[in-house]
Each structure stands twice: as C-alpha cells, then as structure tokens.
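Format notes (please read before filing issues)

Several people have asked whether sequences and structure tokens are stored in separate files. They are not. Every record keeps both together, in the order shown below: the sequence lines, then the token lines. Line labels are part of the format and must not be stripped during preprocessing.
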Amino acid sequence: MRRSLVAAQEAVSQRISQAGRPRAERAVLVAVEFTGERRKLTAAVRLARKAAAVSAGEDESEAAAPRLDLDFEASLAEFEELARSAGAEVAATLIQRRARPDPATLVGQGKLDEIEGVLASTGADLVLFDHDLTPSQLRNLEKRLPCRVIDRTQLILDIFARHARTREGQLQVELAQLEYQLPRLAGRGKSMSQLGGGIGTRGPGETQLETDRRKINLRIDHVKEQLESVRRIRRQQRQRREAGPVPVVALVGYTNAGKSTRCNARKEAGVLESSRMFATLDPKLRQTIAE
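Then the structure lines:
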C-alpha cells in the first residue's frame, strides 16, 4: 500500500515537472535541390575548407577550385542539426528536386499540397526552409500555410540570438536581425504591429508599414552607434595586449570543428563544449604558459 502510494506520488511529481518544461516546437523541414544550378558554399565554409586544405599540405587554389558546391546530403544533415540546435523537434523532412526555384513560392504547387498534408498529420508548429526566401516568397508561403514559415538565414540568426553573451555579440545579432527584417515588412502588418500602433505613434497619413520601417531604421542607427562604441573599447584593449611582450595565438574554425574542445584540452579554460551548432559565438581570451 505504501509502495503504491510512493509510486503514485512520483508519477504526479514527474507529470508536474514535465508540465513545467516548455514544449519543443515541432518543425517540418523542407529541403530543395536545384539541379539547374550549383549551390554555392558560404564564405565561412569556404574559409574552413581552405584552411583544412592548407594544413594538409594541399595547394590553396587547387583545393578551393573543384569544390565550389555544397554536397546536398551534407547540407541537409547540417540543416537538421541547425533545427535541433534552435530547440525544434523535427517532425518530418521533405525534399524536392527541381531545375529552378519557383519565383512565387520556391517550391511547386504539388509540394505545397504535400507540406499542408504533413502539417495536418503531424501537428507541426512551423515550416523551416533550407533555403533563403525572398520577401515575396515568404509572404506567399505564409498566406498558403497555416503556420509560421522560417528560412535558413532567420533560423541561424535565431540560434545566434540564443547564444550571444557579450554586448558586442548581442548588438551584432540584433543588427543582422533588423536588416533581415526590414525588406520583409510588407504584408506582415499583424505580426509587426507591436513595433508601432497606438495613440500618437503615427503622423498624418502614415501607414503602419511606414511606421514600422521608420522605427526599425531608427533602431538600426542606434544599434550601429552602440556597436561602434563597443568596438572602440575592444580596439583599445587589443592595442594594450599587442603592446605587451606576451605573444597572442588565435584559434579559429567553422562551427563544430572542435575549437572549444581543443582549448579545454590545452588548459582547463572552462569553455562550453557542445555538439550543437554555433553553441559558442563570443571570443574567449585565456592565458596559458608554454610547456
């Protein structure tokens, strides 16, 4: 009797603790491979591959030339990891191969019907596109699909916003988000209404869209001023370090390359080690004694 009571209490406690946790958003991933064009590597990936080639003794120009396109399977695996790093639960992954993107919705009408069916069957909260969407494509997709639509760039910016810790990093992420958001305001009055609206916030004849644009432009200017102030302080700190007799060594590389693990292996630096992408964004400065 007592044992069953204890078990019941533990079950209730477990349900309470689970109820207190925020539910992970379920996401449907949509990856598109365009057979009529080669997918370019990002600058970060090109730099990482070039550095790896040089360290392996290969010629820098020869190593970069034949690998200008990102392997589709590798890109898809990276995108799935990006979704998990953002805290999403992958409900389904859909793939479409077509010669060129649809100018209105990126994918074809048949694939849109399939996405709607998968959303209804999985109860997903959002759709993640492994491709950058133009403002018009984003608006058209949001009109058609009954949930939020996010492209690859917005997903990465969201991860950056979660993991940026320093003031400079937070300002850089906010600036990137504002500049990304500005051309995508049209047709999103409801979702952007919190930036404006209310008595006295609009001038005569000024639309909500114009108010949102004006406010975002003002915020962009303000963030740029703050960022320049932070960078000025960082430059002064860098000059003081360079004036000293202690040599400085930088450890750089693509996300998940093992930089934090290497730093901790050299010295117990207390740097976060994680398999999540972009888990550590801010630069870390540590002092060590050469052996």
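For reference, the curators noted about this record: Residues 165 and 282 are 7 Å apart (CA to CA). The two ends are 64 Å apart (CA to CA).
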